[in-house]
Design brief:
Elements: H1 2-9, H2 13-33, H3 41-57, E1 81-83, E2 94-96, H4 100-118, E3 125-131, E4 134-141, E5 144-150, E6 156-158, H5 161-165, E7 182-190, H6 193-205, H7 214-222, H8 227-231, E8 236-246, H9 253-262, E9 272-274, H10 277-290, E10 298-305, H11 308-314, E11 324-328, E12 333-345, E13 351-362, E14 365-371, H12 375-381, E15 388-394, E16 398-406, H13 416-419, E17 431-433, E18 440-442, H14 451-459, H15 471-479, H16 494-497, H17 513-526, H18 531-537, H19 545-554, H20 558-562, H21 565-570, H22 575-581, H23 592-607, H24 609-620, E19 648-652, H25 659-668, E20 672-674, E21 683-686, H26 691-700, E22 704-705, H27 707-713
Helix pairs in contact: 2-3, 14-15, 18-19, 23-24
Bound molecules: 2-(butylsulfanyl)adenosine (IVH).
2-(butylsulfanyl)adenosine is lined by residues 89-91, 128, 130-131, 135, 188, 240-241, 268, 302, 321, 324, 326.
Length: 715
């Protein structure tokens, strides 16, 4: 009997599911909207798990609005487009408060326009912070979230319902005695400052790219097709406007706000009311002063007419309502001391000086560092260690040094080069500043800070053309410490490459064996690629494709290049001598300043420990690329001692090789080549035919020799 009774009394699964959903919605609301939880986390979890179990056992009662759906459903292929029920406009009138009196004038003008168009002196307005987030619209039908969409072009936007359902402070179900049949709420999705900072710190730690500011983080998150990623990110929503609506009349904005409160839809606050211009100005100033205490990023205030009938009278321009205006605030500036300057090495080896500051609270967060960009910027502003500097957050997020306000006693101008003792702070390799460039860079081929860039270049199409080895693979290889420099690629195995994670921790993406094999094959093919591709692939400063080709024309392999007498002759400190000593360099395309710069760069490279290391690694990996366009050049020798010294040749007729080759040979052996036969001509080197030159030589008694006779003259 007892059993029977309890059986009859037990709610059906459907009823229990409904009851649990109700209960969890209620507790969510208390927790997220009112910050007044009534039950412990453990009690909440217990109810949650019970619901999860029941829903799994009875899939026929699935409801996207269930509290369990907060974790996100299946990934989408793309976002559907939604046509907005009412256009989603923005505000045209954004006045920058650059110059306070001017901005105030704009505000006065806006208020005066309201007075004129409404034909009365006192126009009630509200003033609230402008949220730096992403605009969305939420459509509730009969109390259930029907869909959520981004603004898009104002007429149609992306359907981001799945993503929005994961946002904890957005109710999926409205619970009240009186619910409008249609309610379209407009507002902003944003990432609270603290949550943003924590998330960025976590990403940084994990080696993932960080977001520049909360707005970017929000926009990037909402664009995710996988709602599980969105669920893991700390987004929040605040309402600030009404779209389409069917329900009890809302006369003023106050009624709308009261409705939002009853329905537990979170709305933007603080919200100030003003009845005249003075109060409006005071409220804007109040928001400006208090804005850094807000949980979210704000860069301005929005002023809106309170009365809905007044709004209708005022109407719209083509893009924006005449009843609203937005004012942007100037970034906050504060003074602090510059304690030290540290130097970071970027991905391309550029050294970036960073100001280490006495920590200071500015625009709502503590600033302890700011980039100083480069030496030029430091010199221009005469930034010195120990000085007092003015700091602001550019775009309210990235701190910047505006200027020096007080120079420290006995301070000295800052020199980046001296500061790092001419060495890269990351690898202690040499640094150099190229002519015409402001940046100092580390030139070390194996500098860990540059590994990704170097590997990517090494594998690029014009270099060694290794398929499937792009930036994301290079990044993963460096992150996993599988590669520190390009030649490390030759030690990689399929087992190491296949499982490589190219995604993030939240969104892993496996590289896979098929792609891995492409890299292995590509590396194998690279072994046989000609020397000039290899030289270019090393990414030595100043050595582009054509310089690499030139170098391969003059050297057979890396060993020759590394010990090249030609380049030693050409380098800047011996350049003038080189020209005197060895005029035969002239016919070879590497002349003038370009040749000098290239020669300097190659010599510096191979004389550095990096270059020596490279040669060793090439040997270790059995790599010995050879030139496919080698055309030897005679060594720098005393030409007057050469066998053909003092002899002048004229070349004519068809020979077994291009005339240039014979010319080079003659010159290398101290002889000269002239274009026309004269009494000074020693020999006419004559191939088949020969025409007028042969006749002239016969006439002048100049010896005429063929190739065989020519060879006999050579040593
Ligand atoms: S009221 C008809 N209030 O800023 C548009 N907008 O440039 C009335 N925004 O499109 C908008 N915080 O996306 C309003 N407290 C706030 C706002 C706000 C941020 C956004 C909104 C709007 C844009 C205006």
């Amino acid at each position: 009997m007892n059993d029977l009774f309890s059986f009859a009394d037990a709610p059906s699964p459907e009823k229990r599911i409904q009851a649990l959903r109700e209960l969890l919605h209620h507790h969510n609301e208390l927790y997220y909207q009112q910050a007044l939880p009534e039950i412990s986390d453990a009690e909440y979890d217990k109810l949650y798990r019970e619901l999860e179990d029941l829903e799994a056992k009875h899939p026929q009662f699935h409801d996207p609005a269930s509290p369990t759906q907060r974790v996100g459903g299946k990934p989408l292929d793309f976002f559907q487009q939604v046509r907005h029920l009412a256009p989603m406009l923005s505000i045209d009138d954004v006045f920058e408060l650059k110059d306070a009196p001017v901005a105030e004038k704009e505000l006065i003008d806006f208020y005066a326009r309201l007075q004129k168009n409404l034909s009365r002196n006192n126009v009630a307005v509200t003033i609230e912070p402008k949220i730096d987030g992403v605009a969305v619209t939420l459509v509730y039908r009969n109390g259930k979230l029907d869909y959520a969409a981004t603004r898009g072009d104002g007429t149609t936007g992306d359907d981001v319902t799945q993503n929005v359902r994961t946002i904890r402070n957005i109710p999926s179900v409205l619970r009240s005695t009186e619910i409008p049949s249609l309610l379209e709420v407009r507002g902003e999705i944003f990432m609270p400052n603290e949550a943003f900072a924590a998330m960025n710190a976590e990403r940084d730690e994990a080696g993932l790219p960080t977001f520049a500011n909360p707005r970017n983080a929000t926009a990037g998150t909402l664009k995710q097709l996988d709602p599980k990623i969105v669920a893991a990110r700390p987004l929040a929503f605040l309402a600030h406007g009404l779209g389409a609506y069917e329900g009890p009349e809302l006369a003023t904005e106050n009624d709308f706000h009261a409705l939002l409160d009853t329905l537990h839809i979170p709305r933007n606050q603080p919200l100030y009311h003003a009845r005249n211009l003075e109060e409006t100005l005071a409220a804007v100033a109040k928001i400006n002063h208090g804005r850094h205490e807000l949980a979210y990023a704000t860069d301005g205030a929005v002023v809106k007419v309170l009365d809905r009938a007044d709004r209708e009278t005022l109407g719209f321009t083509s893009r924006a309502p005449r009843w609203a205006a937005a004012y942007k605030f100037l970034p906050e500036q504060k003074e602090t001391r510059l304690l030290a300057i540290t130097v970071q090495v970027g991905r391309t080896g550029v050294l970036t000086p960073v100001a280490e500051l006495q920590p200071i609270l500015i625009s709502g967060s503590t600033v302890a560092r700011a980039t100083l960009h480069n030496q030029e910027e430091i010199s221009k502003k005469d930034i010195r260690i120990g000085s007092t500097v003015l700091i602001e957050k550019a775009g309210e997020i990235i701190p910047a040094v505006v200027k020096v306000t007080r120079q420290a006693d006995d301070s000295e101008p800052f020199s980046l080069f001296d500061h790092v003792n001419g060495k890269c702070p990351s690898c202690h390799g040499p640094v150099s500043q190229e002519e015409g460039f402001v940046a100092w860079r580390c030139t070390n081929f194996q500098c860990p800070a540059q590994a990704v860039t170097r590997i990517t270049h090494f594998a690029s199409r014009k270099a060694l053309d290794i398929p499937s080895l792009g930036e994301s693979v290079a990044e993963a290889l460096v992150r996993e410490d599988l590669c520190r420099s390009p030649l490390d690629l030759f030690a990689l195995t399929l087992d190491q490459l296949g499982p490589l994670n190219l995604g993030s921790e939240e969104e892993p993406r496996r590289f896979g064996e098929k792609n891995a094999q492409k890299i292995i094959d590509g590396l194998q093919a690279a072994r046989r690629k000609p020397l000039h591709r290899w030289i270019y692939a090393l990414g030595i400063r100043q050595i582009g494709e054509s310089a690499a080709k030139e170098l391969a024309r003059l050297h057979r392999n890396f060993s020759e290049l590394a010990h090249s007498p030609i380049l030693l002759e050409l380098r800047s400190d011996t350049r003038s001598d080189a020209k005197k000593k060895n005029p035969t360099l002239a016919p070879y395309a590497i002349t003038g300043d370009v040749a000098t710069v290239a020669a300097d760069s190659i010599i510096d490279f191979f004389y550095s420990s990096t270059g020596k290391d490279l040669l060793e690694k090439l040997t270790n990996h059995g790599l010995d690329p050879t030139s496919e366009n080698y055309l030897p050049i005679p060594a720098a020798v005393d030409l007057s001692q050469q066998p053909l010294a003092g002899k002048t040749f004229v070349i004519t007729g068809t020979l077994s090789a291009p005339r240039d080759e014979f010319k080079a040979q003659i010159e290398a052996l101290g002889g000269k080549v002239s274009g026309s036969v004269s009494s000074n001509t020693s020999y006419l080197l004559c191939g088949e035919a020969g025409g007028s030159k042969r006749d002239k030589a016969t006439e002048l008694g100049v010896p005429i020799i063929d190739e065989t006779q020519f060879s006999a003259l050579l040593p």
